[in-house]
UniProtKB/TrEMBL annotation, chain A:
Residues 245-297 form the PAC domain. Gene3D superfamilies: 1.10.287.130, Histidine kinase-like ATPase, C-terminal domain, PAS domain. It comes from Christiangramia lutea. This is histidine kinase. Pfam families: HATPase_c, HisKA, PAS_3, PAS_4. It catalyses: ATP + protein L-histidine = ADP + protein N-phospho-L-histidine.
From TrEMBL, chain B:
One of its GO terms (biological process) is phosphorelay signal transduction system. InterPro entries: Bact_response_regulator (IPR050595), CheY-like_superfamily (IPR011006), Sig_transdc_resp-reg_receiver (IPR001789). Residues 3-117 form the Response regulatory domain. This is Response regulator. Keywords: Phosphoprotein. SUPFAM superfamilies: CheY-like (SSF52172). PROSITE patterns: RESPONSE_REGULATORY (PS50110). It holds the Pfam family Response_reg. It comes from the Bacteria. The modification 4-aspartylphosphate is found at residue 52. The keyword Endoplasmic reticulum does not apply.
């Protein structure tokens, strides 16, 4: 082989090597291009995620915290427009530097410790105005392969509306807490099982217990032994039905004394009408109770003391009348003694009625008006009352009609009292007429009606709703008023209502009135 | 005619009852001393007692209970009286045969006595 040939072979070999190297380089370049493309795509994806995220995201590079990138939400919060990239953070938002933000960043950058905060208040400048916002955020140190910290990744969330809402709730709760502590009432809140979850200071002061002793407890022992059963059954009933509890009971204080309280409890329901808790308010009424007791005792005493001389007067009047009937005829007597005695007797009866009304009023106020129920024939009872009224009142023209016959289950004396009250009113308010008509008829609703009709002064429409109220008295002509306490119709109303009956009036001024009451018919 | 003892601390009521009952033909003794009731019943050979519920601080029902436990006088019917409301049941529980609410009608008084002593009224 000639030297030239050897040289040619050498060159060919080198060419082949170079060609292979070029092919290898081309393959590498193509690989790198693909990888670069892939990286670019990935970068786009990450950027897409970052820039479309509602979270506030930025990357701060180096110890000067140069803004490498910042997504739109964080730029909006900064309020400095889009031209922030490449600027140091504290040049863009210098106002936050002194608010501790630099310290938190330094902690992450120099110590490599991630920093997290929740609902952190930050005052930042937006359009020249300092605005307070709240953020949840994380500062994450970003390192290179050698572990060197290059910058800080910031992810934050604007939680201003939630934070303000929480603050509002906290303020509202504080206000209510102060309000319930300020109130003179004792306030407790129990869960749906009746176990304590909150009480105000007054409750703790009164019972002498600590808040922890109250929490989670159901304590019927605090009620007076005589009231426990009543409170327990009423409370259970209300808990079961989800209705308001309204009861009077004695509650033990820290000294072991029991004091009367008015206890009211109202259910708190969730969106599905399920009772979740109960708010109870207890108001001390010990003094009122004592005053009521004194008043009641006094009225009993007054009534007893008034009735005693009346008993003697009535007895003697009746004895004199009996003596006169037996021994002498009034016609032989120069004085109309019998007539006078009858008048005295009527006035004594009136006095007795007034005393009874006064006592009844007190009993109604004390809720002590006891009814003695019995089954009786109403028509017969009305007849007896009419007979008595006719005997005791000479000038009374009383007509009775029965269109319906029935028995009722009621308090005989109290029903009589209502009828007598109606008739007495009929006479009192009929200065020019002594005609009174009583009728018993079917009220067509399972009830029997008794009405008393007069032909007196009548009642104006506007007064008709008022007359069943306590102490209301009708004015007559020339503004003169009629005798009485103004409690007769109030008592009648109370009596009939307690019998599940109805009471009403139909009247026309100048023509007379018709008072009616109804009672359930006894079906058994 | 019955022999009746009236025990009432109100002097006038005692007199009034005496006058009414004597007018109706009964023989009447009046006392304002509830503690001497048994003594009065026995001494005067009483057949019926009219007893007030509240007599100078003494509860008539206690007197009635005591009499009803005493074999010497337990047989004597007792009509209790009071101006207090709703005490009729308490009086009857104490052993009273009947109860009269003050103020009462003379007729109510005499008819109650007639019910107990029909032959003597």
């Amino acid at each position: 082989m000639s030297p030239d040939q050897r040289r040619i072979e050498e060159l060919e070999r080198k060419l082949n090597e170079r060609t292979k190297e070029v092919e290898q380089l081309q393959a590498n370049a193509s690989y790198l291009e693909r990888e670069n493309l892939k990286l670019k795509e990935e970068n786009q994806q990450y950027k897409g995620v970052i820039f479309s995220s509602a979270s506030l995201i930025t990357y701060l590079k180096g110890p000067e915290y140069i803004i490498e990138f910042a997504n739109e939400p964080i730029r909006n919060v900064w309020g400095k427009g889009d031209q922030v990239v490449g600027k140091p953070l504290f040049e863009v938002i210098p106002e936050v530097r002194e608010q501790g933000i630099e310290d938190y960043l330094n902690q992450a950058f120099y110590k490599g410790e991630p920093f997290h905060a929740q609902s952190l208040p930050v005052e930042h400048n937006v359009n020249g105005e300092l605005i307070k916002s709240y953020f949840d955020f994380s500062y994450m140190p970003q390192r290179n392969d050698d572990g060197e910290i290059l910058g800080i990744g910031v992810i934050a969330l604007d939680v201003t509306s939630q934070a303000l809402l929480h603050e509002k709730i906290r303020n509202s709760e504080r206000q209510f807490r102060e309000l319930v502590n300020f109130m003179p009432h004792k306030i407790t809140v129990v869960n749906s099982e009746g176990k304590g979850i909150f009480c105000n200071q007054n409750w703790l002061d009164y019972t002498g217990k600590s808040f922890m002793e109250f929490i989670g407890q159901t304590d019927f022992e605090m009620f007076h032994p005589d009231d426990r059963k009543k409170v327990s059954s009423e409370a259970k009933n209300c808990f079961f039905k989800g209705e308001i509890l309204d009861i009077e009971a004695r509650i033990e204080d820290k000294n072991g004394d029991y004091k009367w309280h008015l206890i009211k409890a109202t259910p708190i329901k969730d969106g599905e009408e399920q009772v979740t808790s109960w708010i109870t308010s207890s108001t001390e009424i010990q003094k009122i109770k004592e005053d009521e007791k004194r008043k009641e005792d006094f009225l009993k005493l007054v009534s007893h003391e008034l009735k005693t001389p009346v008993t003697s007067i009535k007895g003697y009047v009746q004895l004199l009348l009996a003596t006169l009937s037996k021994k002498a005829n009034e016609e032989n007597n120069p004085l109309p003694v019998k007539t006078y005695l009858h008048r005295m007797e009527n006035q004594v009866e009136r006095l007795i009625r007034l005393i009874s009304e006064m006592l009844d009023l007190s009993r109604i106020e004390q809720n002590e008006l006891e009814l003695r129920y019995e089954k009786f024939n109403l028509n017969k009872h009305v007849e007896e009352i009419v007979q008595d009224l006719t005997c005791s009142s000479i000038n009374l023209d009383l007509k009775l009609s029965h269109d319906f016959n029935c028995e009722v289950y009621a308090d005989k004396d109290r029903i009589g009292q209502v009828i007598i009250n109606f008739v007495n009113n009929a006479l009192k308010y009929s200065p020019d007429s002594n005609k009174v008509e009583i009728s018993v008829y079917d009220h067509k609703d399972g009830q029997v009606a008794i009405s008393v009709k007069d032909f007196g002064i009548g009642i104006a429409k506007k007064e008709q709703d008022q007359i069943f109220k306590k102490f209301y008295r009708i004015s007559g002509n020339k503004d003169d008023t009629y005798a009485g306490f103004g409690i007769g119709l109030y008592l009648s109303n109370e009596i009939i209502e307690r019998h599940q009956g109805k009471i009403y009036v139909k009247s026309e001024k100048g023509k007379g009135s018709k008072f009616t009451f109804t009672l359930p018919i006894n079906q058994n | 005619m019955a022999k009746i003892l009236i025990v009432d601390d109100d002097h006038t009521i005692g007199l009034m009852l005496k006058d009414i009952l004597e007018f109706n033909g009964h023989e009447v003794t009046v006392s304002q001393e509830p503690r001497k009731t048994k003594e009065n019943l026995v001494q005067n050979d009483i057949e019926l007692l009219l007893l007030d519920k509240l007599i100078s601080g003494v509860d008539g029902t206690d007197v009635c209970k005591m009499l009803k436990k005493d074999p010497d006088v337990a047989h004597i019917p007792v009509i209790m009286m009071s101006a207090l409301h709703n005490v009729d049941e308490i009086c009857k529980e104490a052993g009273a045969t009947d109860f009269l609410s003050k103020p009462f009608d003379m007729e109510a008084l005499t008819s109650k006595i007639d019910e107990i002593y029909p032959e003597k009224g």
